[in-house]
Amino acid sequence: MGQAYDKFPKTCVGTHQPEQIWRDHEMFNIHINAHKQRWLKDVVDIMDCHRFEDDFCNCVDTTFIWEWVEYPGASGALTKCCVDMVNGVLELVTENDEGDRSELTQRCECWKFVNCYPSYGEIRFHLDDVLQCAFWFGYIQGHTWFGVTPPQNTAVFYKADGSAALNFETRLAGAQTATTGIATLVQVVWYRLGIHWDGNGTIRYFLMQDGNFPQTVLATGSHTTNLPTTELSFGFGIEAGEDDYKTLAVDYVKSAQLRVIET
Fold first, then answer.
1. Would you call the peptide bond into 228 cis, given omega within 30 degrees of 0 as the criterion?
2. Secondary structure element (H or E) that encloses residue 32, with its range
3. Using an 8 Å Cβ cutoff, are 29 and 9 in contact?
4. In whole angstroms, what is the distance from residue 43 CA to residue 51 CA?
5. In sequence order, what E strands does 43-197 have?
6. Which helix (H) or strand (E) segment is 247 a member of?
7. CA neighbor of 156 nearest in space, from 256, 74, 95, 226
8. The pLDDT value given to residue 8
9. Which pLDDT belongs to residue 212?
10. In terms of pLDDT, which residue wins out, 80 or 115?
């Protein structure tokens, strides 16, 4: 599939020939790799790829698919519903007290960064307030990222309360590697975030400008330290930073990994 540099979307590629990267467990550069049809088989065949997608065109399934955590108790969230918007959009809305929060993760920890088995996760989202709330998206151990003690193993984007700066972190047994200030988010603007495990010691993060294919990469980087090695769940969440309702809108999420065969 070409050199490693050719596989991954990059910033500053110029405007004369925008990159067209198909983002999945393997990155696919259409210009360079158009003839590699085996890649397409791995993408569409359940035998070879573990895949999860939710486009939020139905009620959120919290019985079999999603684990919903709200704090405090059963009063941290005003709603978690699919709204009447084009494409199908989920809105997580907190109650109107500071510290109220709502999180959705898959009910099982079914993702693991295993050598030789690349993976990719993505979200399209926006926040109605980029200052007075906290936000996260990615892979975590357990079902809540918020709280006094973060999960011991993570690979997540996050935004702290009181700041519009987007950050990325990986954690292994509590030890953290963080990249801060990746970008400054703007309220009610759609973004796409991507997390890619290359199956060989590197997790890359991507912030993509919204729009139809192809999409411009606004920021990217990589972590090679403190990468989690245990099973993880996939999800996202929002926490109110003041006494007011805060909304996280999610158009879709996807996660895909070459099917892991462990001995």
1. no
2. helix 30-33
3. no
4. 9
5. 49-54, 66-71, 77-83, 89-94, 101-106, 119-127, 133-140, 154-159, 165-172, 175-184, 191-197
6. strand 247-258
7. 226
8. 84
9. 84
10. 115
Closest CA to 119 of 22, 231, 255: 255
Report how far Cα 220 is from the mean position of its chain's Cα atoms. Answer: 14
pLDDT above 70 for 239: yes
CB distance 86 to 64 below 8 Å: no
* SS3 label, residue 44: helix
Residue type, 111: W
**CA dist list (Å): 119 to 14, 99, 194:** 27, 33, 10
Residue given tokens 């009063």 in the structure block? 75
d(CA 91, CA 156): 20
Task: Indicate the DSSP class of residue 260.
Answer: P
Both structure tokens of 108: 């099982």
Burial of 94 (0-12, 13-18, 19+ CB in 10 A): buried
CB–CB of 26/6 below 8 Å?
Answer: no
pLDDT digits (tens, 9 = 90+) for 79-96: 888 898 999 999 999 999
- The region that residue 226 occupies, defined by phi over 0 for left and psi between -120 and 50 for alpha, beta otherwise, is left
Is-contact 121 195, C-beta < 8 A?
Answer: yes
d(CA 230, CA 113) in angstroms, rounded, equals 8
| pLDDT band at residue 18 using 50, 70 and 90 as cut-offs | low
Sheet bearing 175-184, strands edge to edge: 66-71, 101-106, 233-240, 133-140, 154-159, 165-172, 175-184
